[in-house]
Design brief:
InterPro entries: MeTrfase_TRM5/TYW2, SAM-dependent_MTases_sf, TRM5-TYW2-like_MTfase, TRM5/TYW2-like_N, Trm5a/b_N. This protein is an alpha/beta fold and 327 residues long. It is globular, with a radius of gyration of 22 Å.
Length: 327
């Protein structure tokens, strides 16, 4: 089957495999193959491979010896992976324990297995976990060539939004000023700085801000990223008319912060506004809220209306890309 592979001379194969494995990019469901003096290493995400490596399509054989949790259980369990942590969402504690034991018995790489013990709650957006295997909820998540240290018990993080974050980051241009109003550990802020922007990342969660500092250094962008702890409605006074780009990824209550966003916006500013709305009118309420906050000081142009994912029955998590232009 043709899959993305890094092609290197065999003499460089082991060093390359280690470099890819450190970034969790080796696809272990396919065999590493030697062919005519080259080594073909299957990768999970071609876009995240550094430019120095040659990525090609190659007919790699599936590994036959890999044991997956479904092979142990007799059914295919649902789980998410976040670095070395595997996340379950099971209402039945006994079923959760069975799945965790099967994961430990399988070839799936996992240091910790947890089950969700609460919904996301509080203004810091954290949840409780039942730790079934392992003793640490801290992990390193890798995404589109960047890595993020985080503790899922102390900060909010969703790996499901990786594609959406990448879509936004790809719009960033060198030299612009970007403000992430709810930055967390930096999955928007760090890559925006990596694209050459000067970035302010703000969050109310002190632990998230500590990880944001660490992740800025870890990814080599500390000189372009300032992490600020506090309520962005208060922080906005220090950065009035500063931002060329604003990220508002707080979909349940972003409309409460639109006045702060307008204060932060420069004469021309792109706003990425996240919302959760009913399928009957997923974009209308957000557009109305942005116009109400920004007009008449700004002209409001809606550039993109995007459904990010299904959130609940008949509800969507959506994003509006909006350009604000001062009158």
């Amino acid at each position: 089957m043709n899959v993305p592979c890094v092609r290197v001379p065999t003499s460089e194969g082991e060093a390359t495999r280690r470099a890819l494995a450190e970034r969790d990019l080796v696809d272990r469901t396919y065999e590493i193959t030697v062919r005519e003096g080259s080594l073909y290493i299957p990768v999970t995400d071609a876009a995240a491979v550094r430019a120095e490596f040659d990525v090609v399509e190659f007919d790699a054989e599936a590994r036959e010896t890999q044991t997956m949790p479904a092979d142990v259980l007799g059914f295919d369990p649902t789980y998410e992976r976040l670095g070395d942590v595997v996340i379950l969402d099971e209402d039945d504690p006994d079923r959760a324990r069975r799945i965790a034991d099967a994961i430990a018995e399988s070839d799936l790489r996992a240091e910790t297995v947890v089950n969700r013990a609460s919904k996301v709650k509080g203004e810091l957006r954290v949840r409780e976990w039942d730790v079934l295997i392992g003793d640490s909820t801290e992990t390193v998540h890798r995404e589109y060539g960047y890595e993020f240290l985080l503790d899922i018990a102390e900060v909010y993080f969703s790996p499901r939004l990786a594609t959406e974050r990448h879509r936004v980051v790809e719009q960033v241009r060198e030299g612009e000023r970007a403000f992430d109003m709810f930055a967390g550990v930096g999955p928007f802020a760090v890559p925006m700085a990596g694209h050459g922007a000067e970035v302010i990342g703000c969050d109310l969660n002190a632990a998230a801000v500590d990880y944001l500092h660490e992740n800025a250094h870890r990814n080599g962008v500390a000189d372009r990223l300032t992490a600020v702890e506090g309520d962005v409605r208060e922080v906005a006074d220090e950065y009035e008319n500063w931002a060329d780009r604003l990220v508002m990824n707080l979909p349940h209550s972003a409309d409460d912060f639109l006045d702060a966003a307008v204060r932060l916006a420069s004469e021309e500013c792109v706003l990425h506004y996240y919302d959760i709305q009913h399928e009957d009118d997923p974009f209308g309420p957000g557009i109305e809220s942005v116009r109400e906050a920004a007009e008449p000081a700004y002209d409001v142009r809606v550039d993109t209306e995007r459904v990010v994912r299904s959130y609940a029955p008949h509800e969507y998590n959506v994003c509006l890309d909006v350009t604000l232009t001062a009158r």
